[in-house]
Amino acid sequence: MNARRAERVSRYLSRHLRHAPDAIGVVLDAAGWTPVTDLLDACARSGFPISRAELDQVVATSDKQRFAFDDTGQRIRANQGHSVRVDLGLETTPPPEVLYHGTIESFLPAIRREGLRPMGRHDVHLSTDSATARRVGARRGQPVILTVDSGAMHHAGHRFRRSANGVWLASHVPPGFLSHPQFGHS
Fold first, then answer.
1. Count of domains in the chain?
2. Is the pTM of this model over 0.90?
């Protein structure tokens, strides 16, 4: 499978395993899992057939490890980023002292006032390195990297969870825990 096809398959799976499973007739269980055979059948019925080999390749080689198979290899789910209600069963865990979030400049005034909010997702997504945050922010334009004082947040009682692919999740990041030169503190 070439890189363009892999990206198209990954985007299609993201849409239907994270946001709109019902659009192709896929049913996710409470933890976000669906049988692989049901998913592949639904993709074919919707006019976007995916082979099992393509699915295996996208799950194995995705740079962001967006998807996972269960231990049997018979069920699949997205690792995080859902807008549909699922419980991934992630345990609360202490975060690193610093995490990062990529965004764009036009969002900074709202972020300075309200902090980071999950918007249409369940959680705010944070990364352990600024390079990943930069790639995330670049999807919408010129990236701006915010530094999150996650250690202080944790000590103040905020909860963090870590997804299977290493993305850190928080329900909200208040503005007082964010640093950026335009915020007047760093």
1. 2
2. no
